[in-house]
Amino acid sequence: MDRINGLSDEIICHILSFLPTKESALTSVLSKRWRNLFALTPNLHLVDDDLEVGGCGQTLIDFVDRGKEGGKGREEGKYGSLEGMAKYFDIDDILIEEEFVPVLFHKTANGVTIDPSAETNCAEQGSKVELPFWLAHELHLRQAVTINLPPCFDQKTRLEVQADAAYVDLRSRCPYFYEFGCKIEPLVTDRTLGILLSTAFKIRYKEALTKVYTAAHITASKYLSFLTKEETNLYEAAHLSMTAFKKWRTGGPRFQRASILGRKRKDSN
């Protein structure tokens, strides 16, 4: 693996070009450096399928083209810039949008095979089902569904956060608890979700920093199992910062003379 990481981006992209698009995308979990490389491969292939909702179809290519033109709404924010396109290919963002949310259909949706045991591939008006967030969001924008609060933000979670937020196992509820909550919050009628996210984060972030400086390795390992993906990243960043600070405090001179200054002093003598 280290030998492969030593290769240039161009060579890695060339290697990925021999893989199917799906397998090429899966390599992004190998290393942070690989996260967006698959998107640069010359043979990237996107399937252009139609999705008909309430009698109005839109193809993948049309959707992306509208984003490039800086269209309104989600397309403009997420796909209308280089930063947005990088977000589109981010593996964490993809995993977040795969989280399921409960929805209520206001219109009949054709061409969405939700229940494999159903006789038809459509969702009738009034149906209550769970859909991946990315699909539920698109249907919500077309006023085809109402998105309800996912179970990971239910009353039980709120009561546990109020009782002892620092030690609630949020990872088991949703690995991306905060980012998923931020995506859901504007789409649901519950206006207290933002307060829940803010309260939980403030308390748990303070506790995480305390653990970095005081917890033993075994205790820290158990504590990390409760943390969400976002909290784990912050914990690891704080741990690296503390390690670097201790190394600076205990090792070597505080200031180092530039080598060029040493050479000039010798020349003058």
Top-tier CATH class of the largest domain: Mainly Alpha
Reported CATH architecture of the largest domain: Up-down Bundle
Total domain units: 3
Determine the fraction of residues in helical runs and give it as a percent range.
Answer: 40-55%
Protein name: GINS subunit domain A
Organism: Arabidopsis suecica
GO biological process, one term: mitotic DNA replication initiation
InterPro entries: F-box_AtFBL13-like, F-box_dom, GINS_A, GINS_Psf3, PSF3_N
Task: Write a structural description.
This protein is of the alpha+beta class and 269 residues long. It has three domains: 7-45; 49-148, 3-Layer(aba) Sandwich (Ribosomal Protein L9, domain 1); 149-263, Methane Monooxygenase Hydroxylase, Chain G, domain 1, CATH 1.20.58.2050. It is built from 15 helices and seven strands. The strands form two sheets. A four-stranded antiparallel beta sheet has the order 2-1-4-5. The protein is flat.
